[in-house]
Amino acid sequence: MRAPKRKLSWHDPGVRSVIYQILAISVVGGLIWFLVSNTMHNLAIRNIATGFGFLHREAGFAIGETLISYTPQDTYGRAILVGLLNTLRVAVIGIVLATILGTIIGIARLSKNWLISKLASIYVEVMRNIPLLLQLFFWYAIIADNMPGPRQAANPMPGVFISNRGIKVPALEGNGLDWILGGLALAIVLAIVLAHWASRRQEKTGQIFPFWRVTLGLILVLPTLSFLLSGGSLSLEIPVLTGFNFVGGLTLTPEFAALLLGLVIYTAAFIAEVVRSGIQAVNQGQWEAAGALGLKRTQILRLVVLPQALRVIIPPMTSQYLNLTKNSSLAVAIGYPDLVSVVNTTLNQTGQAIEGILLIMGAYLTVSLSISVFMNWYNKHIALVER
Amino acid sequence: MSTTTSPNDKRDLPPVVRISAFTWMREQLFSSPLNALLTVLSVWLLMMSLPALFEWAFVNANVSATTGQQCRGSGSGPVGACWAIIVEKHRLILFGTYPYDEQWRPMLATFILIALLVLSAWRKLWRPSLLLIWTIGLILVAVLMWGGVFGLTYVENSLWGGLPLTLILATFGIAFAFPFGVILALGRRSKMPAIKTMCVVYIELIRGVPLISLLFMSSVMLPLFLPEGFTIDKLLRALIAFIMFAAAYIAETVRGGLQAIPKGQYEGAESLGLGYWQQMRLIILPQALKVVIPPLVSIFIAMFKDTSLVVIIGIFDLTQAAKAALADGAWRGFGVEVYIFISLIYFVFCYSMSKYSQSLENRLSAAQKR
Question: Does the interface predicted TM-score (ipTM) exceed 0.90?
């Protein structure tokens, strides 16, 4: 008997799936075409030119804080770059600080000390359950409304002034700074090379190299040495009150301070939970078995527990980092000139709504995807190699 | 677990150990030098901050002032919290600009929405009839808020505000995002490459951008998307952005549940001769959704908190109402008090939901272990 000839039939799942897919594509495609054609029509009526040509026009608005030089005579493109850099600045500093604070609180929540663990859990519960935007408003109200003016500024440490104009701290000045940073970079590179060499040697001979002590030494000695050898100058610039405001020193504006404070405090509560669940995921038997091998407590933590806890911690930690970066867009509500805020001003002035929103989405997508690619790489790097 | 005792069986419970307060403190607070140091340090910090906070919030607080100037005092003597602004402005903060004499309607609507949430938390009601209760509840809310029938005066939705608006955004947002999210999750697990790609692109695109950009898009771009002469109002546009955003997150959560279902369940359903939708509706989704209820509650909490972002596009939710109360020149500068007040409202909602989600997680995982 011959196999029946394949016919085009509704009862063939392959045929059905092709038909469904064509149907789905045409529905979605039709919808997109409908929206795009409406948009083109509407834009034509309102005499709005499409395209990114407006990026080369003069912006004409000032930006409160910039990392690169910027004046209102610069182009929209440069203004948006300034905004992007401001977003990255708050995100990077925020991620570092939130990780430190979150890890401390996560470990504190597991502490055997009743008081410490209770305080940590109160912190987590309170901060997680109040909207971030509200917390930003709250910190901003505290700094902008409730702090004294520059003349009566609070002075908790010599050289540090807190007023409603922001937080002033002393700044390091002089060309010696570059030499110190250069020395630090050299020390870090040497430490990485050393780490590779030390682990190679340990695998071969079993001898343990006192890596951390040597690295600490390098990090302290090299920058000092390069500073002394270069003979560069270095001075501490302390903020001084002249007239109605401070001159000199580094400034954290009220907007930046409130945004950073809010982002760090909010995200740290989530990171604390991630760290706690990661450490709890490591079986108690691992601690005991490592102890039975004669490892010291620090060694147990570093060689046995942390590598396993990290596998659990990394994926949710990545999403917290992404959340922090995306949440930094709330800056627009308290007036910190981040990407969203600058683009918002731009699209109000030019009417280029679609291009503006595409720029915002593109920028965040790029940042999100690069963070997740890096963290996925890191996750793979530390994953246990199983059979 | 091999024991078969029920929790009610008192005989098998371990004996209660009584320890003295001194032993408790030695074990819990001073077990090592480091612990003792930490305890002393945190007690010192609490001693420094709590009494001052207590004095600010209660002892020196002013509840009866009628203007902001009275609250600030004469400049001498300790200044406490000015709760008088809450007393003065609570109607504005809770109900926004809804007509003053009709404010019993948003209040009733708020209670109905809270009742819906509480009923949904009750496991005995987890059955199709819950859907009916929700439909009736949401229709009641709409009638109360809009009015125009049964002798209620019509109130247009640009006047809605405060707590009911926050609850409406969160509940309607989730209620409509849920089916959309489930379909996206199924699409992402589909074997058809075109459908799978479209779902993946949608989910990753939405999850990669902040909610603000979607809200901006809905408020600036949506009017451009529509045919000429066709407009949707601001609240609905914000709601659409919310639904689009929540659906992507719900889809990822539901996908987690779908992946947790053993392959045998899919094969078993197929061998019974069920079609795709029958398999999903009768076999796979009931199991998958049960697994993901706790993370879905977390998404609901996150959405509830995220409703505060509509402030940025100028919709009068609870947070915007707080800002409006502060905009009154006579009461300028009492932001901290107002923000603490509405933080408490958000906290009560979110904290009770997260506690519920935790207890649910414990019960569901206990049921699975058996």
Answer: no
